[in-house]
Amino acid sequence: MESIPPSYTPSPPSPSYSTELLPGEQTVEETRRRAGLQTQNTGVFRRITDNITLVLRDQKPGSIKPVYGRNGLVRGHISLQSSEGLAEVTLKLEGHLRVEISGAALTTSVASNSYSLWSSSSTEPCPKTLPFTIFFPSTFMDGSQARPLPPSFEDKNATAGKCSYTLSVVVSRPRRFLSSFRSSDSLVVPVCYCPRSRPHTPILPSDAQFMTTVKSSPEEWHQVLCTMNATKRSGLTPVQCLLFIPSLQIYPLSETIPFHLQLRAPSGSLAPFLEKSPPDRSLPMPSSGEISIRVYLLRQVVLKVFDEQKMTSSQILGEGKLRYAAPLSENHHLYRDRPLREGIDCLDWDGELRCTEDVTVASFATNMLSVRDFIVLSLNPLQPMKCPLLASKHCHPIRLVTDPWSDQSVTW
Known about the structure:
about 400 residues, single chain, about 5% helix, mainly beta, six-stranded mixed beta sheet
């Protein structure tokens, strides 16, 4: 028996919507459009030759090099002095990684996109002005693995590692007597690829008091532990070094990173850190004493060619500023798993770290070229032959990103 579907009543039209809030309504979440970000840059970049003019929009006014971010929109036009007798007009976006170790150099492509803006197969004559809109790719194949496209980078301390991008215009013409061969004019413009990144949560403000926040929010701090050993001849107990940094361990280039340093040991082992007491003081005052204490940001550039890995350079991105924290016995137990053993004392410093303003590239990694960042705690005797303590240096890996955390839903 043939079944007949039931009849349906047409649905009423959907109500009209508006971005304007009605009385009693409120916005729960809002995502800004990409176009809104592009309108922030209203400058125009121009590169002019005898036969070709390249115009790139959405640049910062007065910029001397075009800059694009993640999935960046490359928008502009090409102007030709003459559009007659052409075979093809092509726009190319290319990127290369180049590394060199022990005389062995290797170059690999991270971006190679070609766009034909006009060809002689078209039924229309070539116009003198050719507009275009393309996008930067978001990833590249690093061996068998897809990775985010690396930023433009050139090591200032060595020329062995470089990542660069270019935008090229190629205007092809057939040769007069050999029609199967072409001659061409080209215009090549270096561009800067600067993908933005940010932490997924905010870090503690730089003015946050360690003794207060470690009690109320201990999860906000990460403890880095290392040891400063003593010479066998001295018979001193090693100094336990505790460096507390914000637990996220992903820090914006432009923000100040708070930290807290504590040294634990018997008073005899801590004596080299103390400045001798002047007659009008009852207690010695901690300073560097006989020990140089440094906390700083360190960047390492690591290259790899044919399974040979080599660190080509190290650069200090910022020096920490330390302030001695007066001993408050009632606070010392707040961040310890257990009380100090009898005869153990401690010295405390608060501090801040910040990158210098010329640092603009965040941490990144590829098989061939990696930029790695660390927070380093360094304890060095000023007179190693006389000091009973041995030098100590500990590097803790972190990640640096371009932008601070934001509660706005923005995709770069």
